[in-house]
Amino acid sequence: METVIEVIVFGLQRGAIFGLVGLGLALVYKATRILNFAQGELGTVPAFAALMLMIGFESSGDKAANRGLLLPAIVLAVVIGAALGVALYVAVIRPLGKVSPVTSLVATAGVALLLTTLELNVFEARARRFPRPVNGGFRLIGTSVIVDWHTVVILAVLGGVALALAAFFRSAPGVALLATADDPFAAELQGVPVERMRAMAWGAAGALGALAGVLGAGVFESLTPGLVTSTFMIPAFTGVVLGGITSMVGAVVGGFALGIVSQAAIQIVTSYNLDVPGPPQLAVLLVLLAVLLVRPQGLLGRLA
Amino acid sequence: MTVRPSRLAAFAGILALLLLIPQIVPVLYVNVISRAAVYGILALSMNVLVGYAGQASLGHAAFLGVGAFASGYALSELGMPFGAAVVVAAIVGMVAALVLGGVALRVSGLYLALVTIAFGLFAQETLFNIRFLTGGGAGQVAPRPSLFQGDVAYTYLCLGVLLLVLIFDWRLVASRPGRAIQALRDDERVAASWGINVTGHKLMAFVISGAIAGIGGALFASIEQIVSKEDFGLSLSITFLLMTVVGGAGNRWGVVQGGILFAVLPTILDRTHANFHVFPFTGLTATWEPAIGAILLLLTLTLFPGGIAQQQGALLSWLGGGPFKRDHDAQGAAQGGGMGARP
């Protein structure tokens, strides 16, 4: 029983980050029909910016981060993430023009590679300590399972973001964005500034990515170049597909499901002493295949 | 078919250059030429999927790895001769590709791209970690054949296989199944209405691609004579995609040049960094290579969707037997194969 609770608690922690990354993916897909492989690096780059602010912009030193600056650092990260998102749309996606979804995925994969290489060259291939907003944890009542306060913080942020997005899609600009996604031409006829709506969606996705980057680095309490892409992206992709690629709720639900599934896979392999390497990767591939073969539109999505 | 002397001379020149390169290049860098040949083979393997069949693959490093480990296992654990090990690698590559091709029958486009990414990660973390097959973290030893022990000799072997794969690719495109595969890329429903067996030819494209990648893997394994799972990460898969797109998906000469470019770029950056002490080279070390590749990709997609092949259109058309004109043979390449401007 305790193990089950532990799996769920850790699964929710990872799953919430998958959900944050997934929300950015789903938002961009909804607005521009593009699967953004660079979403992870829209998180890692701002996380590095936040770390730089906290250690006083000394990229080579190993100074301890000034935790007092964490809040301004997170704000800075979100601003940089949003700016990166808009820049990515204006500089890469728009010049591409009307291309197949796979081509734009390839282009964003190129952007991810570019950003990772920049990080590697500026910040070197090593791990740096990254602070959490709240340290420590508490014992779950009636069990011996310790829940990190960081998990609570991530869940709260995810909840806040989800509420904000839900409210946004009921407001006038939100409806305009949905109209843009549905039929850009008709939306334009109705006076919706289509280009601006799309750029805004990419900007919002960048801000979400930044939150995922800062909180995700907090999960490991360390930051390495390419962190979000290598640890959170593929499960987040799978979570989005599981939840239904155009559904925002689905992205969160799928993220949690993937978090718990990968944690359960690790737990099963360790407790039964199985000789199966890479259980989370195996689980993610199996879930992806199962979803695509059984219910390709996902749990909550319509057929795209 | 009459072959004009000038064209014959050009081919002879290219062949002579190929044969001379391993002699000219300093011994230290001969293995880079072998790697370039293997990347060229992998580019042709990618090209069958991306360029001809219009299917995306972001997990091709997995096929290279499957071939490399299969060959290593056959060579060092089963004691097979090199030729047999290459055949084993090709068959194992085929089987792996057949599995992925089975998935591709049900899902397509973006979803297939996702599956290939997840497959690549699964291969790297799970498949290549199975200790008795791949030696786990220590890696699998893959000795060279006795006839090609030296670095220079082995380079000639790799170049020879690249040439064979090129010839195979040329004959494939000219054949009935080859044309059927390309018809699938343009429109599956139209192809079906022409009586083309969609399922069979899609699977065939995957199997051919997997077999070529497996052969490439067998050669790759014996360059350094040891392979480990670290060699087959997601970034290598992305590199394979980059070289196919930058080279010009759909055009065999283009993609081979793309493969060679991406194989030698790190070494060239290292050498220029060490020898030229002027502005761009002082800051550019081999660690910047992926960034250069990514920028080339973005420039290719936005400005020249047909890649290197599009820019050399006239030359490639002439070498291929057509007139020296820009868009004759380059038509398919200008659409960029699977990367074309179709919504």
What is this structure, in a nutshell?
In chain A, 71% of the residues lie in helices and 3% in strands. Chain A is mainly α. Chain A has one domain (15-230).
Give the helices and strands of chain B as they follow along the chain. Answer: HHHHHHEHHHHEHHHHHHH
Largest sheet of chain A: 2 strands, antiparallel
The CATH class of chain B, by name, is Mainly Alpha
- By secondary-structure content and strand pairing, the structural class of chain B works out as mainly alpha
Protein topology:
The complex is a heterodimer of chains A (304) and B (343).
Chain A lengths: L1 H31 L8 H15 L14 H27 L4 H23 L4 E2 L7 E3 L6 E3 H20 L3 H11 L1 H6 L4 H27 L1 E2 L3 H17 L4 H24 L7 H16 L10
Antiparallel strand pairs in A: 1-4, 2-3
Chain B lengths: L4 H20 L5 H24 L6 H17 L5 H25 L2 H17 L5 H4 L5 E2 L9 H24 L1 H11 L1 H6 L4 H27 L1 E2 L6 H14 L4 H24 L3 H5 L5 H15 L3 H5 L1 H7 L11 H4 L9
Antiparallel strand pairs in B: 1-2
Overall description:
By secondary structure, chain A is mainly alpha-helical. Chain A contains 11 helices and 4 strands, in the order ααααβββααααβααα. Chain A has helices spanning 2-32, 41-55, 70-96, 101-123, 149-168, 172-182, 184-189, 194-220, 227-243, 248-271, 279-294; strands spanning 128-129, 137-139, 146-148, 222-223. A two-stranded antiparallel ribbon of chain A has the order 1-4. In chain A, α1 (2-32) runs antiparallel to α8 (194-220), α6 crosses α8 (194-220) and α10 (248-271) crosses α11. Chain B is built from 17 helices and 2 strands. Chain B has helices spanning 5-24, 30-53, 60-76, 82-106, 109-125, 131-134, 151-174, 176-186, 188-193, 198-224, 234-247, 252-275, 279-283, 289-303, 307-311, 313-319, 331-334; strands spanning 140-141, 226-227. Chain B has a two-stranded antiparallel ribbon. In chain B, α3 (60-76) runs parallel beside α5 (109-125). Mean pLDDT of chain B is 86; it is low at 328-338. The A-B interface holds A 35, 92, 95-103, 105-107, 109-111, 113-114, 116-118, 120-121, 230, 234, 237-238, 241, 276-279, 281-282, 284-285, 288-289, 292-293, 296 and B 56, 58, 103, 106-107, 109-111, 113-115, 117-119, 121-122, 124-126, 129-130, 234-235, 238, 241-242, 245, 287-291, 293-295, 297-298, 301-302, 336, 338-343.
